[in-house]
Every structure is written in C-alpha cells, then in structure tokens.
Amino acid sequence: MASSTSAPAGVEGAAPGPxxxxxxxxxxxxxxxxxxxxxxxxxxxxGQGARVVLYVPxxxxxxxxxxxxxxxYYGLRRHFPIRRLAxxxxxxxxxxxxxxxxxxxxxxxxxxxxxxxxxxxxxxxPDLAVTRHWATxxxxxxxxxxTVLEVHQLFTPSSSGRVARVLRAMSRRRSLRxxxxxxxxxxxxxxxxxxxxxxxxxxxxxxxxPREGLDVGRAEARQALGLPGETWIVGxxxxxxxxxxxxxxxxxxxxxxxxxxxxxxxxxxxxxRLSRLAEARGARNVRFAGHVEPARARLYQVACxxxxxxxxxxxxxxxxxxxxxxxxxRPIVASDLEPIREVLAHERNALLVPAMDAAxxxxxxxxxxxxxxLGERLAAAAxxxxxSATWDNR
Length: 394
Fold this sequence. Notes:
It is built from 14 helices and 14 strands. By secondary structure, the protein is α/β, with parallel strands linked by helices. The chain is globular, with a radius of gyration of 21 Å.
C-alpha cells in the first residue's frame, strides 16, 4: 500500500524514546510553509530522542521539486524515515475538470487520505500521532490512537459551523490529547466553539536559531545573490497570494521609487500576474527572485534593509516568515492585525501599519531609511525575542 524512502530513525546511542507518527497531507518537499513546519518539527522531535516516522501522501510532484531530496532541501539531518501513503491525487484533475467536479475530487481525496492514513498509522500503534489534517485526526481518534491535531488557520463563515461540530465531537474522545493552536486569537475562537480549555495548547510557530560560523552580513549576502551593494532594498519572502498583501506592497513600491522592492518566492503564474500589475501601476523598481530553497530565502532576508509583512486578512494566524524576519535581525514593517500584535509591538520590535494602506506602508519604510538608529533598535529587539522561538523549544 505504501513505500518507504529516506533515512535511519532515532538518535544513535540514545535510549528508545516515544514512537511518534507525524502525518502530513502535503507533498514533501513542497514550496509551501507547511512543509518547513512539518519537517522542522519532525527533526526537533527526533533530535530529542523520539522515534519519529513521517507519513506523506504519494502525490505527483511539481516540476520545481521533482527528484529533490527533502532532507537536503530543508537542510535537515537524516534521522527519521518518510513513508508514502497510497493516495488519490486531486491535482491532475485541476487541469481539465470544471469547478464543481474539482471541489468534489478534493473532498473525496481528503476523506480517502484520512481513512488511509488513519488505518495505516493506527495499525503501527504509535505512542502519539500528530497531524494538521482534519480527516486523519478524525479517523485516528475514532480508532483510539492518541492524537494531537494542529490548527493553524481561522475558518471562513461558511465552514465554521462544520468545524465546530467536528471539533466538539473529537474533543469528547479521550484519544484526542490536544488541539494545538498557534495564536491566542485562534485559541479564543476554538474555545468559543465549545472546545474544552484543557484540550487547547498554544504553541506559536518557530525558527532555526542562528548557527555559529554560518552567519553572513548584508554585504556578503548581496554579493552572493548578485544584488546591488548600495541600493536600499525592501524585501518580502513567501507566497504571492492576494491575502498576503503583495498588491499593497506593489502600490507602496510606486511611492518609493529610489528603493528596490524584492519579492522572493511564489508560483510562476503569480509572479507573471504581479509583474504585469507592477508595470501597469508604474512600479518599475520591483524585482521577482522566484522560488528558492529555504536556506537561500534566509540569505535574501539578510540582504535586505527592511522586511515587510503586508498581510491583509486573518487567515494566517502566525506567519512563519514573521519569525524568520525576526531572526534575520532586520527591521520589520508589518500589518497591524491581532495575531501579529501577539508577537510584534509598534515601535518596540517593529513598525505596525494599517492593513491595506500602501501610503502608510511606504511611509514606515522610508522612516526606517532616514532613522537608522530606530531600525537597529527594532531589529535587535526582534532578534532577541526570536532566540527562544526555536523548534526545539516548541
């Protein structure tokens, strides 16, 4: 039913630790932040002695990721195995199916994955299963496997009723050991759905600590990336979805023509769409670096003078890039949204601006340009806070 790839499990010389099955519903590797989170958590758990097995669906890989070694891509040690689950991959149908059929295929695919993963993992009798996949958690708890479900996003009004019913049902099962949330506002939302407080565990996202001897400065990073040495560079790393506020940053770019606004990441079609939009709006100071592996994304972050998080909605409750920005020790300008305020405070470790306000975003960036001391103070405070936000601590 499945094949196994990858690596020896366990920590050499260590006493046998708990057996943890980690179940992902995404391809590995992937260009989504989900993949970083899953792989880093598996590494951290294995590094502390757990016997971890990562289960992933056998999906058709994207062209960029075909043949890529996941351990090399994420820069991880090989001390947990990756096992692939038989899976009805919904992605090929997206090229030909009409929208209603696409949705039906996705729903069926997720239900089948939950059943396949649940039965397979339950049969292995782990001490604990961890997943972000609702259908898998439902099946595992039904089969009385001790399970942790991670919830990373708020729910749309159309789905919140269904989510509430599912959570209430699962929270009555003793096999659901915890619902992990990544922000206080998300914890409040789930508590409002009558999930018992004792089942809710708040664990924000995390970041790799700086590695001794591997740090580079701004000048070295720019030289390695072929970026201009003297230009003021404003950076954004991550997906280029509308909810991320990238169009707001495009509008802000046209208000600061002397700066280079650098977008790192995103799918090719999103880059093409934004490139056309930048041209239409007269933002000729915009550059798209395309998709890069996580280590190279960090190099881009270090190369920038300021890093921007222009998110416009509450969907992402604890953006991983926020912690990466903090660890890069660069001043941050971010949207003034509740989940972000749980981590950043205006003029203490960042500058916060109203979401969707390109003029205020540009004004904050230019303020940092003329006040270098402010930028240094904010960046140092954020970097100090990030020191404890490690995957091992999580």
